[in-house]
Amino acid sequence: MTDLEPGQLILWILLLVVILFIGAALFRSVRIVSQGEAQIVERLGKYHRTLSPGMHFLVPFIDQVRQRVDLREQVVPFPPQPVITSDNIVVNIDTVIYYQVTGPEAATYEIANPMAGIEQLAVTTLRNIIGSMDMEQALTGRDQINGQLRGVLDEATGRWGIRVNRVELKAIDPPATVQSAMEQQMKAERDRRAAILTAEGIKQSAILTAEGDKQSAILRAEGDAQSTILKAQGDSRAILQVFDAIHRGNADPKLLAYEYIQMLPKIADSQSSKMWIIPTELTEALNSVTKGFGGVPSGPTVETEDRPEVDFGDGVDGVAAALRETSLPDIDDALAAAKGEAARATDEASEAGEQSGRPARRTDLSGQGPNAPHRED
């Protein structure tokens, strides 16, 4: 290759520079915009257009990109701000704002620093809202505060091409002294509820205990009544069996007098007995015993005739059959029936004694004596 002349060498250099310049101009004229992003293009220092996602061509050295705008939703936390409530308590409030750029041109040319503007607007609006509430309302009215704050910010940032989607209060921190007082109040409220629940439990326990005692006393009384009825029925049937056995055996006055003498020590055998009066029937009983063993009675005797046999129905077999068929009746009916049977047996015994020629002494089966008043069970 022959050496080039100086003029040709300069020409080649100029040609290479032109090619490089054209390549650089073509490279700068092609713009690729990513998804979720917008670019503001100015032509000779004036707004020309907004590039959407995709590939675009610009005029080299005339069109230039002024700013790239992120169209995705942004989350911006603000530092804690001291705010005074209506009851003069200073609380620190952390705020988080969710916003999205809807107008890239307005966000670029309407405000120089949109984040600073949103922060200052949020602080002033928050102080106005909290200043009209007391601390209790501020702690419990987060939804109300969020709604009012979002409405004010959305209205103000609309002309900036920014839409505020949500505003959240991360924390509301009252002073330490107020927190201590609130904890004491909550503890006192819990203690009050615990005392109320304990008192309710004691009350229910006392009611259930009293109800159980009542039912137990009722059942015990019913059991005593049933026992008394059964005992009275047993005594009445025992008396019937004794009288039936005596009359079936055709006991004479000597045997009865002997049994009467045997019962006298039992009658007098009592720790509370200070004086015992011998009954008038004792002489007659002694005469009957003496006569029975072949002796001569010491006093006048009464001639007795053959005593007729008293008819007690079916006798022992009838009594046994009646006992087998006995069922527990009503309390009042059972007591009345038992008393009637005892009185009827006594009357029959008295009639038998009168028929034998000797006045019979009527025995009171109730245990109260002839002159005792009648006692209702």
What does this entry look like structurally?
The protein has helices at residues 6-29, 104-109, 114-131, 135-140, 142-157, 176-249, 253-268, 281-292, 315-324, 331-355; strands spanning 30-33, 37-43, 46-51, 54-57, 63-70, 74-84, 90-101, 162-173. The protein has 377 residues and is an alpha+beta fold. It folds into three domains: 6-69, no CATH class; 74-174, Tetrahydropterin Synthase, Chain A (2-Layer Sandwich); 230-355, no CATH class. The chain has a three-stranded antiparallel β-sheet. Strands 6-7-8 form a three-stranded antiparallel β-sheet. Strands 1-4 form a two-stranded antiparallel sheet. A hairpin with a 2-residue loop joins strand 2 and strand 3. It is rod-shaped and about 190 Å long.
Count of domains: 3
Low-confidence segments: 295-316, 322-328, 357-377
Biggest sheet strand order reads 3-2-5
N-end to C-end Cα span: 155 Å
| Structural shape | rod-shaped
The averaged pLDDT comes out at 75
Main beta sheet: 3 strands, antiparallel
| Helicity, as a percent range | 40-55%
Give the count of helical stretches: 10
Listing every helix as H and every strand as E from the N terminus to the C terminus, the arrangement reads HEEEEEEEHHHHEHHHHH
> What's the total number of strands?
8
- Beta-strand content estimate: 15-25%
Q: What structural class do the secondary elements suggest?
A: alpha+beta
Over the alpha carbons, how many angstroms does the gyration radius reach?
62 Å
